[in-house]
Amino acid sequence: MARIVGGIGTSHVPAVGAAIDNGRQDEPYWAPYFDKIGPARALASELAPDVAIVVYNDHASAFSLELIPTFALGVAAEFPPADEGYGPRAVPPAIGHPDLAWHLAESLILDEFDLTIVNEMAVDHGCTVPLSVAFGQPEAWPCRVIPLCVNVIQYPPPTGHRCLALGRAIRRAVDAYPGDERVMIFGTGGMSHQLQGERAGLVNLDFDREFLDRLVTDPEGQAAVDHTTYLREAGSEGIELVMWLVMRGALDAEVEERYRMHHVPTSNTSNGLIVLTDAADSV
């Protein structure tokens, strides 16, 4: 049977993708960040996923204010990199896993999650940058990809509790899939940052550290944090952190923290990264 072998929580800062694409990883500004993500890449290689479920938010590439799905699941055979105004990233297309994706769609909808099923979709930096963080610059991504978009752009976004519950439903669906796929789930976005207004450039290190701690040891407590608290403490874009709770919900109640790093700043963003596996897998 298929199984979830681990989860990665990571920021999806577009400037990270640009640094990779333009060969700037060794520059003084970027080298400290890229030095820190090496252990996470080693763990991603060790866990050897066949499929990555990437939970991210679209940035007006596949969707707009004309169509705002709360949860949208990509079921296509291939997802090309999106043109975000400066041409698509020079990264491989994400090759999908339609059989597993349709199984997820059926299981989640019958589990009372109202998904939008997407048969054609370009994926922007929200999806491609986490893949680059985990896997570097391969000619082809080392695993298939199932994109799961979450609306954190237009109010109201889903609650942290709903995202945690979605992760648990994904776990049930994967556990019931009659294959031997090794599945890794990504929760992306954040950490604290604000891109506009009087608080543009906001970084709250205490909030970010506490979020990572509670993600590991008290996901229910973190899921109870309301939208206003995210807005006040982590900035207008800090709400993206609810997507990490989807990843956390797909893992056991007890997890092993395999790696954590935090780097400030990348661009104008507090950048975090954590790798988790089920505690039972380490016994």
Can you characterise this structure?
With 283 residues, the protein is of the alpha/beta class. The protein has a single domain (3-282), classed as LigB-like (Protocatechuate 4,5-dioxygenase, Chain B, 3-Layer(aba) Sandwich). It is built from 9 helices and 10 strands. It has helices at 14-21, 31-47, 98-110, 125-135, 160-175, 205-217, 219-223, 227-234, 242-249; strands at 3-10, 51-56, 71-74, 78-79, 94-95, 116-118, 144-150, 182-188, 255-266, 269-278. Helix 1 (14-21) crosses helix 4 (125-135) and helix 5 (160-175) packs parallel to helix 9. The longest helix has 17 residues, at 31-47. The mean pLDDT is 96.
Quaternary organisation:
single chain
Low-confidence stretches: none
Structural class: alpha/beta
Number of strands: 10
How much of the residues is beta strand, in percent?
Answer: 15-25%
- The coarse silhouette is globular
Please identify which CATH superfamily we are dealing with: LigB-like
C-alpha termini separation:
20 Å
Q: What series of H and E elements makes up the topology?
A: EHHEEEEHEHEHEHHHHEE
Number of helices: 9
Q: Name the strands of the widest sheet in spatial order.
A: 6-3-7-2-8-1-10-9
- Rg, Cα atoms, Å: 17 Å
**Helix percentage range:** 25-40%
CATH fold-level topology? Protocatechuate 4,5-dioxygenase, Chain B
- The first-level CATH class name: Alpha Beta
Q: Compute the average pLDDT.
A: 96
Question: Which second-level CATH architecture applies?
Answer: 3-Layer(aba) Sandwich
How many domains is the backbone divided into?
A: 1
The major pleated sheet works out as: 8 strands, mixed
